[in-house]
Amino acid sequence: MHFNKNSVLNVMDLCCDREQQRLFAHLSFEITAGNLLLIEGPNGVGKSTLLQLLAGLITPSSGEIHWQNIAIQQQRESYAREIHYIGHTNGIKLGLTVLENLQLASHLALASIASERLSETLSRLQLENQRTKLAKQLSAGQKRRLALARLLLFRKPLWILDEPLTSLDAATQAMVMQLLEAHVNDGGICVMSSHQSIPFKEIEIKTLRLTAC
Fold first, then answer.
1. What domains are there in the chain, each with its CATH number?
2. How many whole angstroms separate alpha carbon 105 and alpha carbon 108?
3. Within 13 Å and on the Cβ side, how many CA atoms surround 140?
4. Residue 102 class from Cβ within 10 Å (0-12 exposed, 13-18 middle, 19+ buried)?
């Protein structure tokens, strides 16, 4: 099953100020179906902030972000159903078990996931033995894998990922890279940041380098 080949994310003349500091100004780019955009730049230039803006979590100082040629502010609920956003804080509930976190994600996504599918996802991410463990008891790498489980469970055309390879071992990094390649080859869009080199084998990546204002 392929995604809409006409999908497009447009950023137009985006400016962002935080705490009386301008992070970036007049930023414009377009990314279409079947592409991955890698956000690069040193710490503090606004990579995470840009990803939060693209996810609709915060509002820019000026400029617009359009999904399918409609401003995301005009389609908040439908846009939220179209994206996977995984920030550097993982977005998991520490007081719930690993399995309960996936069940909650399924409920929020208005999706019915069979128990076999949940077990398969946990096994693939090496979390099967932790399914009844509270998320707060997991290691940093296990928490990251739990956050990334959403990519396996639900098909959404736009992925917005902040340092998705952080805290993962080499084998899990390779698996996530395969997921990213498969998503893009299916016509999906991915915008992500990473502080490390990512040697994709099957896709070409576009890069956007942020610099301090």
1. 8-209 (3.40.50.300)
2. 5
3. 8
4. buried
Single out the residue of 110, 68, 194 nearest to residue 180, CA to CA: 194
Strand partners of residue 94: none
- Cα–Cα separations (whole angstroms), residue 213 to 25, 27, 60, 64, 144: 8, 12, 16, 19, 32
56-87: pLDDT as tens digits: 999 999 999 999 999 999 999 999 999 999 99
- Compute the distance between CA of residue 106 and CA of residue 184 in angstroms, rounded to an integer: 23
Instruction: Find the DSSP H helices in the chain.
Output: 47-54, 76-82, 98-108, 115-124, 140-153, 170-185
d(CA 99, CA 128): 9
Q: Which of 109, 108, 106, 133 is nearest to 117 (CA)?
A: 106
What is the pTM for the complete model shown? 0.92
199's CB contacts (< 8 A; 6+ apart) are none
Amino acid type, 83? I
